[in-house]
Amino acid sequence: MDSWIFHSPIFEFDGTKPSIRQHSAWKGHAKFAYDLVQFVKPKKIVELGTHFGFSFFCFCQSVKDQNLSCDCFAVDTWQGDLHSGLYSNEVFDTVHEVVQKHYQREAKMLRKSFDEAIENFEDNTIDILHIDGFHTFEAVLHDYTTWLPKVSQEGIVLIHDTEVRIQDFGVYKFWEGIKQQLPSFEFTHSHGLGVLFPKGCNEKFKSVISDLTNLQNHYSKE
């Protein structure tokens, strides 16, 4: 059985656009995302809410380094919202520039709303789904519910900002409920990241979860 490995990757996008890491609320999860892809070896990754692309590029880097046959989809309108603020085409252009320079084979950008983009995917085909869109309880519940049929039988759902309790952020409320119902674990650093197995946790991952404290301690130092 495969073992979980702690890698020390070089993220190529850091050399091109270091500001992406500097301004990301996701940077504490970079190595976990990389190692997760190395362990799971997915065939399809979908990210809902990409902004400047930090988490997305972490997935892409891992796919690239392992030469996986995997498509990585970034779904975003790149117009912003009330939580991230509204922004110009500069954000989309930055992500596009990095994709063209480093991840042309791995990355696919879908400039659509989440509800529009869902038609691009067959049921039971997404191995890793990362939900990081609008952060109200209603929004994350809608995103999870509508996209769940697209997740594969051993698929994993990542949910960011599970520790944020300001304004009308409601991801933590969603997470508190769903983690009681389904196999899951979480990281509380870097705004919180929930790791959910909505259709069941396979044997391969059960061995990883059995040493969960070590996993959490390792990545919380990032």
Summed up:
It is built from ten helices and nine strands. It is of the alpha/beta class and 222 residues long. It has a single domain (13-220), classed as 3-Layer(aba) Sandwich (Rossmann fold), CATH 3.40.50.150.
Overall mean pLDDT stands at 94
pLDDT < 50 stretches = none
Overall spatial form = globular
CATH class annotation: Alpha Beta
Roughly how many Å is the radius of gyration? 16 Å
Distance between the termini: 27 Å
State the domain count. Answer: 1
Q: What percentage of residues falls in helices of 4 or more residues?
A: 25-40%
CATH architecture: 3-Layer(aba) Sandwich
Description of the structure:
A seven-stranded mixed β-sheet has the order 5-2-1-6-7-9-8, with helices on both faces. It has helices spanning 12-16, 18-22, 30-40, 54-66, 90-102, 114-117, 137-147, 171-178, 203-209, 212-220; strands at 44-48, 71-75, 80-81, 85-86, 107-110, 126-131, 151-160, 184-187, 193-196. The protein has one domain: Rossmann fold, CATH 3.40.50. The longest helix is centred in the first third of the chain and has 13 residues, at 54-66. It is globular. The mean pLDDT is 94. The chain is 39% helix and 19% strand. It has ten helices and nine strands. Helix 3 runs parallel beside helix 4. It is an alpha/beta fold and 222 residues long.
